[in-house]
Amino acid sequence: MTSCSSSACQAPTREMLDDLVAGKVASHPCYSRSGHHRFARMHLPVAPACNLQCNYCNRKFDCSNESRPGVSSTLLTPEQAVAKVRQVATAIPQLSVVGIAGPGDPLANMHRTFSTLERVREAFPDLKLCLSTNGLMLPDAVDRLVALGVDHVTVTINTLDPDIAAQIYAWLWLEGERYSGREAGEILVARQLEGVRRLTAKGVLVKINSVLIPGINDQALPDVSQLLQASGAFIHNIMPLIARPEHGTVFGLNGQAEPDAAMIAAVRQRCGEIMPQMTHCHQCRADAIGMLGEDRSQQFARIPEPEPSPQPWLPVLFQRARLHASIATQGESDDEDACLVAVASQRGDVIDSHFGHADRFYIYSLSAAGVVLVNQRFTPKYCHGNDNCDTEQDNEERMTAIFDLLADVQAVFCVRMGYTPWQKLEALGIQPCVDDAWQPVTAALTRWWQDYRTRIASSDRRNKGVA
Ligand SMILES: C[S@@+](CC[C@H](N)C(=O)[O-])C[C@H]1O[C@@H](n2cnc3c(N)ncnc32)[C@H](O)[C@@H]1O
Ligand code: SF4
Ligand code: SF4
Q: How many angstroms does the Cα of residue 178 sit away from the middle of ligand 2?
């Protein structure tokens, strides 16, 4: 794996992304220029099967010496995957993103994939969840992904033309039927586009991967940029084909050329006139662990024992928030008055949620460095999907879990809050703030921070007996 030199790293600038996107990419090592060297990612190899056969792919398990997509040393069960996240998050507290990218297709393994995502979401409410798919089953998965707060999805789209698709894919399986040739291409492209449009309509950040295959799709990729940009995707990642005979793929064995640097640059240049380009993707393994440009998967080769009942991992979560705040503010959050606050929001840039309805809180650091987004915390869901759902006990359990989750913040901003949670928060020393309902987050937090500092200064003076 090559390491990323800063000149080669062309992450999109903040100006290219609106506030909402900027909030979602913060602390994501693949998308954020500042997060790139400071936050770590982890792929969970829980998805062995695939519903599509790309002529460039040979999924390999038990392979520790190759660094390319689709290979993995192990296959994990959902339970083992959660135990592994805990192990890695302890050793690498900079971990901010957990993704599923194979070794097959996550959505060809719906049960394993969603079981893993649900468990990780419950046990690690502050981690971003990512998924990388060929898009065939995406229309069926959008609602579940959104409900879990999966904010980043990568869809591999190599062409919009069914005849070109027939040269790239050998076959696909859908609802028990096998398709090939042009017909398979038509089905795949239609479902990819439907899936992407439904995701972007719900505010999920969609990245498009395209494998650049000389003589097959090099001329077709600007069309992919054009239509996918219009469909709301936010970045295009053109990945050079890897095709070696020793990998045993159709393209590797039939001598299909890999693109040279000049072709990669030329295609990225043409597509870059249409849509922001990602140029620092490391084409990571399906079990990659660590900062971008490093792979520590071998260090974590032992499969940990699954734990009987994964609990939210609060003390470590609080430590990680402080560390992430310090990374994001370049040390300024160590300023004496620095604190964390929570904002109940759906959109992220506006205070727009009722405390009791919030499914996530945005955690901000307030310090001499200003108002800086640290991460999000997803609230536990205690709906068990049966008649017991939404009983008073469920509500009480959920509220207790939310108070635990917010125990390290100084204030909670929301649109409205009931009397009971208000009292409870105050008893915990956390200030409920509803006066800035529907206001932009940055302005509201800046005002609160100025007032907070004034209060601290005057209480210091009182403690010292100064008039
Ligand atoms: C292994 S796949 C797993 C996710 C999913 N099945 C998919 O295809 O999007 C991850 C990414 O690696 C890419 N990939 C797989 N084999 C490749 C190869 N030989 N050369 C370049 N990219 C490859 C895929 O196209 C995809 O974008
Ligand atoms: S869809 Fe993904 S996992 Fe399936 S064959 Fe293609 S690259 Fe491999
Ligand atoms: S494969 Fe590319 S996008 Fe995925 S984790 Fe690696 S660098 Fe990030």
A: 16
The pLDDT tens digits of the residues spanning 411-466 come to 999 999 999 999 999 999 999 999 999 999 999 999 999 999 888 877 766 666 65
Q: In this predicted structure, what is the pLDDT of residue 385?
A: 44
Structure tokens at 1: 């794996």
Is residue 15 packed enough to be buried (19+ CB in 10 Å), middle (13-18) or exposed (0-12)?
exposed
Ligand 3 atom 8: residue of nearest CA? 30
The domain boundary residue, chosen from 255, 277, 300: 300
Cβ(374) to ligand 3 under 6 A? Answer: no
Q: Whole-number mean pLDDT of the chain?
A: 86
DSSP string, 332-378: GGGSTT-EEEEEE-SSSSB----GGG-SEEEEEEEETTEEEEEEEEE
Convert the pLDDT of each residue in 91-111 to its tens digit.
Answer: 888 898 999 988 999 999 999
Task: Give percent of the chain with pLDDT exceeding 70.
Answer: 85
**What mean pLDDT comes out for the span 82-92?**
90
Question: Do 204 and 151 form a contact (C-beta atoms < 8 A)?
Answer: yes
Q: Is the distance from the beta carbon of residue 168 to the nearest atom of ligand 1 less than 6 Å?
A: no
Q: Return the residue matching tokens 């705040």.
A: 325
Tokens (6 digits) for 360: 């996530």
Tell which phi-psi region holds residue 348, choosing left (phi > 0), alpha (psi between -120 and 50) or beta: left
Q: Check if the beta carbon of residue 339 is closer than 8 Å to that of residue 370.
A: no
Is residue 64 over pLDDT 70?
A: no
Asked if 354 and 398 sit in the same domain, the reply is: yes
Give the tens place of pLDDT for each residue, 176-235. 999 999 999 999 999 999 999 999 999 899 999 999 999 999 999 999 999 999 999 999
> Are 20 and 76 within one domain?
yes
- Domain holding 420, by residue range, is 314-463
End position of a domain, from candidates 300, 325, 345: 300
pLDDT at 330 over 90: no
Q: Is the CB of 278 under 6 A from ligand 1?
A: no
Query: Residue 135: CB within 6 Å of ligand 2?
Result: no
The CB of 101 under 6 Å from ligand 2? The reply is no
Residues 415, 379 within the same domain: yes
To test ligand 1's pocket by mutation, which of 239, 244, 251 has the most ligand atoms within 8 angstroms of CB?
239
pLDDT at 254 over 50: yes
Q: Which atom of ligand 1 is nearest to the CA of 104?
A: 6
Nearest ligand for residue 207 CA? 3
Report the distance separating Cα 273 and Cα 279, nearest Å. Answer: 14
Please give the distance, rounded to the nearest whole angstrom, from the Cα atom of residue 207 to the centre of ligand 1: 13
Q: Which secondary structure element, helix H or strand E, spans residue 100, and what is its range?
A: strand 95-100
